[in-house]
Specification:
heterodimer, A: alpha/beta, 4-stranded antiparallel sheet, 4-stranded parallel sheet, globular, B: Aconitase, domain 3, Aconitase, Domain 2, 3 domains, 15 helices, binds iron/sulfur cluster
């Protein structure tokens, strides 16, 4: 996993609630046996027509955004980690929403993608800001747990589990941690049977 | 201290608590399938990590498999590669695989319970969100992502924060022709698709007490649609009777001993739940969904509610429906009876019971897909297949099929499908497909009538 670093970029707005993982990456693209190139098929059916031509969809604009701002309850539905891989591969490092589905949140964190939760009011304000000026720059500082921008006076502070923060900043995964505990887990198993 | 059922099972599996809220949870059973496992095996191989407990793993091929001519090689190349990869990984690591052609093959959440692998008190995971199904037996079962599949393969444990507990109580008598599927769609209509996020749900009350194991599985299956990690129901005589004699269930004296242990698995009186809801069975009707998430449901004779926001508008546009419209009498194009929600023997009995002596409507294509080879076998034994065939409805072979359309079974764009599956998301059953979720009876009736009819009016 790559280390999460502070960055500044524009953000793309996706003002739709309950975006499920079937939209993020439709099932027919889950047939790969590796983790490569899922970004091509991110929001596939929202981005492309049947014949492969592009629809008028926000992700089809030319941009360099590393931030996606999405409506409430992002990532519900299937447990497919491919959704997190696709978002990351496409170039997103942060998803901002007022609510994330459980499994998606975990999958994102396990892949260096930060689910940044803000309040409903903050979220609608962010949508408004981008609507007024799509080139607004935002800075995500994980160390300080802030989202800042020239478009608002006071930084938005967000919360993240301290362990998960440490993992993101250092590029560690749960697997690294659990492997350190392997002996203890084995002992536990023996004590149960 | 008073404990909930969930607390009892969870706490018994905690290896260590770290910094107060992170816990290492020991995992008893790990189901794997072809879609979410290949990258996990890859990572282990790359890092040279061995598998911790091979005996805890059971594999099957379900998501990608064709539902006709399963004896032939899989036509679609990518699907074949994924299934082949699973075979290869299982062979390499000596993992039990119920692949195509095996009499135990089927949808992972159908075969675990029917083989008696799924038992009360366990922790069970699978790289699939509908792992919540297994909770019907009074265990902690939940879906995980591929990174977590890797963690369980490597260490037999997961690092988690303990979810909160919710209890949903439904008491009273269900009305005629109201099925477990209607109960869960009703709960979803009231509570929405994220009421359960961060929670594990315990279903309590007389309705679940009196429900068959198949019905309990249908309900627990769709806990995830409420956003919950899982749902569970305290094991009782119904559970024990179901398990007795199943292939991998304990036998003889051991079974009796286990039943005694399992009988202790219930929420203590006065145990505190973080959230609790209560509903009246008599208020539940046969249900339908009209939108693009399972919470967008109505009682079968109600009209589609008003549009509240752009998401609702988008959903109705996609569905080709309008607020204020009824779904009753709506002509439909496809019927799918299958999936880990409703593809057990009981579901086909319900459908066959209605279909008997009738013929399929000409305007409808009907796909009957048993959840497993064993269900298919039982359909034959009970001569339910003859009922379907007489109605001009062939029975397909076991797999996930049109539930997510990863194989050839896709609903064409713009077509309406009454489906017994669990998700009506955009494109879930095929690009542009319009899904109406319902019970097996409503689906069977639609297959015969060619339109949606009010099954509560049937005898
Ligand atoms: S039947 Fe549908 S929901 Fe169930 S495991 Fe298969 S794809 Fe998933």
């Amino acid at each position: 996993m790559d280390k999460f670093q502070t960055f500044t970029s524009t953000a793309l707005p996706l003002n739709i609630e309950n975006i499920d993982t079937d939209q993020i990456i439709p099932a027919r693209f889950l047939k790969a046996t590796d983790r490569k190139d899922f970004g091509n098929n991110l929001f596939r059916d929202w981005r492309f027509e049947e014949d492969g031509s592009k629809k008028a969809f926000v992700l089809n604009q030319a941009h360099e955004a590393n931030i996606l701002i999405a409506g409430n309850n992002f990532g519900c539905g299937s447990s497919r980690e491919h959704a997190a891989w696709a978002l990351y591969d496409y170039g997103f490092r942060v998803i901002i929403s007022s609510f994330f589905a459980d499994i998606f949140r975990g999958n994102a964190l396990n892949n260096g993608l930060l689910p940044l939760q803000v309040s409903e009011a903050q979220l609608s304000n962010l949508f408004k800001i981008i609507e007024e000026n799509p080139t607004t720059q935002f800075t995500v500082d994980l160390e300080k747990e802030t989202l800042s921008s020239n478009a608002f006076l006071e930084d938005i502070s967000f919360e993240i589990d301290p362990y998960k923060k440490m993992c993101l900043l250092n590029g560690y995964s749960d697997l690294d941690f659990l492997l350190l505990k392997k002996e203890q887990i084995e002992q536990f198993a023996l004590s149960r049977f | 201290m008073k404990k909930t059922l969930f607390d009892k099972i969870w706490d018994a599996h905690v290896v260590e608590t770290i910094n107060g809220d992170h816990q290492i949870l020991y995992i008893d059973k790990h189901f794997i399938h072809e879609v979410t496992s290949p990258q996990a095996f890859d990572e282990l191989e790359r890092k040279g990590i061995p598998i911790a407990n091979i005996a805890s793993i059971v594999a099957t091929a379900d998501h990608n498999v064709p539902t006709v001519n399963q004896h032939l090689p899989i036509q679609e190349q990518l699907s074949r590669l994924q299934v082949d990869k699973l075979i290869e990984n299982c062979k390499k690591h000596d993992i039990e695989l119920y692949g195509l052609g095996h009499p135990y093959q089927g949808i992972v959440h159908v075969i675990g319970p029917e083989l008696g692998i799924t038992q009360p008190g366990m922790t069970i995971v699978c790289g699939d969100s509908h792992t919540s199904t297994h909770g019907a037996f009074g265990n902690i079962a939940f879906g995980i992502g591929t990174s977590q599949v890797t963690q369980v393969l490597a260490t037999q444990a997961l690092l988690l924060t303990k979810p909160k507990t919710m209890r949903i109580t439904v008491n009273g008598q269900l009305k005629n022709n109201v099925f477990p599927k209607d109960v869960i769609l009703y709960l979803l209509m009231h509570l929405g698709t994220n009421a359960g996020t961060g929670y594990f749900i315990e279903y309590a009350g007389s309705v679940f007490k009196e429900m068959s194991m198949e019905g309990r599985m249908t309900v627990c299956n769709m806990s995830i649609e409420m956003g919950a990690r899982g749902g569970l129901i305290a094991p009782d005589e119904t559970t024990f009777t179901y398990l007795q004699g199943r292939e991998f269930a304990p036998k003889g004296e051991e079974f009796n001993m286990k039943c005694q242990q399992w009988s202790k698995l219930f929420s203590d009186q006065d145990a505190i739940f973080d959230k609790a809801y209560e509903f009246e069975a008599s208020d539940i009707s046969p249900m339908l969904t009209y939108g693009t998430n399972p919470g967008m449901g109505i009682k079968i004779n109600e009209v589609i509610p008003k549009i509240k926001n752009t998401s609702d508008e988008k959903a109705l546009n996609y569905m080709g429906l309008q607020a204020g419209q009824q779904l009753l009498n709506k002509a439909i194009d496809y019927v799918f009876i299958g999936s880990c929600t409703n593809a057990r023997i009981e579901d086909f009995r319900i459908a066959a019971n209605y279909i008997k002596g009738k013929t399929k409507a000409k305007n409808v294509e009907v796909w009957i897909v048993p959840g497993s080879q064993q269900v298919a076998q039982q359909i034959k034994e009970e001569q339910i297949d003859a009922v379907f065939e007489a109605a001009n409805i062939p029975i397909r072979q076991a797999g996930c099929s049109a539930c997510l359309g990863m194989n050839e079974d896709k609903i064409p764009a713009g077509k309406y499908c009454v489906s017994t599956s669990n998700r009506n998301f955009e494109g879930r059953q095929g690009k542009g497909a319009r899904t109406i979720l319902a019970s097996p009876l409503t689906a069977a009736a639609a297959a015969i009538e060619g339109k949606i009819i009010d099954v509560s009016q049937l005898n």
